[in-house]
Amino acid sequence: MPRIDLSVATPGRGAPANRTPTRFNLKTREEDGQWLDERNDIDGLAPPPKTSVTIEKPRSIISTNASPDIPFEHSINPYRGCEHGCIYCYARPTHAFHDLSPGLDFETKLFAKPDAPALLRNELARKGYRASAIALGTNTDPYQPVEARLEITRGILEVLAETGHACTITTKSDRITRDIDILAPMAARRLVAVALSVTSLNPRIHRTLEPRAPHPEKRLKAIRALIDAGIPTHINVAPLIPGITDHEIEAILERGAAAGARTASFIPVRLPHEVAPLFRDWLDTHYPERAGKVMSLIRSIRQERDNDPDFFSRMRGSGPWADMIRARFRIACKRLGLNQERIELNESLFCPPEGAQLRLF
To answer: Max alpha carbon distance in the chain (Å)?
Structure first.
């Protein structure tokens, strides 16, 4: 695949530009001329790409997971694409299925599912439905900026709270604190647990690595707010990027523990499919002096590949460098008193919704 022109990064976005998906034999496409061709008359720069939201009408909303190294069976994703723009996001390749680029398209051309709460209610009411904790935020962030306006995630939580259905939430946004009024009563019944991801405490790294995600200090404050409300909240040092963020492991864990988190985890960066060349472009743009070293370290924990797709090892990494990181993480957690307990949810309280017509029996 030819390299793209990296002379100018796209302000406020993670991917330097678009890359045309090739895995599905899709036609070659040019970048969106609406923003690329129009130039600012004053300074000669193209205006930044605007975010668009397309309404999606799926027939179902609960996805089933069969991967043996992922600890949940069911998940819900209210959105496709994510405006946070994290360059490392393993969900970027999903946009290729829509004939869209995993690059800037993933960050700017979003899909929303406003019918998700109604679909969820219908699926929970089906005869024979077996309740197990539903995971939110497994693909794209359920609290990305568009959630402030659409409130789809909040609608889903309202249905889960009403039916006594357990759930987990993974996010990197302090916007989750908006829903404490729903989450706190759920937590009192052991129906919810939250994982907040903190990738770096360094503002410069954060600004380019995940440009539209909330500042890490806001995430740490969110952990404290959730803990104070009685909501079990886990700190996730993810993804861990060798040569970029690995030196911050202990500092992030210390801040998370100080905010009240009692459990923690980490995941080494994953670069599946189109994410690898996008990440290389990002390195060449922002860290050209260490791009080769970073990719060499990543390959050293991924069996000399850009990405290791194998179950279990993909989440842990392998080799001496990965072993060293695990040892550092374990020692830091022991020193800080983290992971001395487990967050256990109650999956026995589920009561199916009544639906439009009240049940007779």
So the answer is: 71
Among 356, 354, 343, which Cα is nearest to 71's? Answer: 343
Burial 75-91 (b: 16+ CB within 10 A, else e): bbbbbbbbbbbbbbbbb
pTM, two decimals, is: 0.86
Residue ranges of domains in the chain, CATH in brackets: 55-267 (3.20.20.70)
Residue in 228, 285, 288 with CA at minimum distance from that of residue 260? 228
pLDDT of residue 229: 98
β pairing state of 167-171 and 192-197: parallel
**CA atoms of 136 and 168, how far apart (whole Å):** 6
> What is the residue-wise DSSP string for 126-186?
STT----PEEESSSS-TTSTTHHHH-HHHHHHHHHHHHT--EEEEES-GGGGGGHHHHHHH
Q: What's the Cα-to-Cα distance from 67 to each of 73, 129, 251, 257, rounded to whole Å? A: 9, 20, 32, 30
SS3 45: coil
Mean pLDDT, each 10-residue run in order, the chain (361 residues): 43 62 43 34 58 95 88 94 96 92 95 98 95 95 97 98 98 98 98 98 95 96 98 97 98 98 97 96 96 97 94 91 97 98 95 64 41
